[in-house]
Amino acid sequence: xxxxxxxxxxxxxxxxxxxxxxxxxxxxxxxxxxxxxxxxxxxxxxxxxxxxxxxxxxxxxxxxxxxxxxxxxxxxxxxxxxxxxxxxxxxxxxxxxxxxxxxxxxxxxxxxxxxxxxxxxxxxxxxxxxxxxxxxxxxxxxxxxxxxxxxxxxxxxxxxxxxxxxxxxxxxxxxxxx
Length: 178
What we know:
Elements: E1 4-11, E2 15-17, H1 34-40, E3 41-47, H2 48-61, E4 73-77, E5 88-91, H3 95-104, E6 109-114, H4 116-124, E7 130-136, E8 144-145, E9 156-163, E10 169-175
């Protein structure tokens, strides 16, 4: 079965974006393990807000969402979108069952890119198998938190940690399934 990997940048104080949705604090001066990560995945799960931001960024900057990211199968989870762009599959009903079905299909691992509501739903259902966080050495003080409140604790096992000369720390954890 394919693994669902929540992979994202986070500030040291736990925010995934600033108070106005900004993510200009993310380091882009080197690879930070992205090439290796991209070799492990062939699909991406993305929520509506993150998808719209990605689409607008591509139009505004004529660039890829993440430098070095190869073309992959996109699954856009939204109850409000009527359609998704070329090459993307819109999932508008029963996102949990759809995610389970896609995970059961043959292929490489799947990147859970965002957003917060999608991440929250998948975490609560136990669909996330791994968390890969790039912890940036910055304190925003406010913004959108990475995790919401859960009704139980979730144990993690450290798979890998790597420190970069910029102060960024990459952490990979598997979620202990009970």
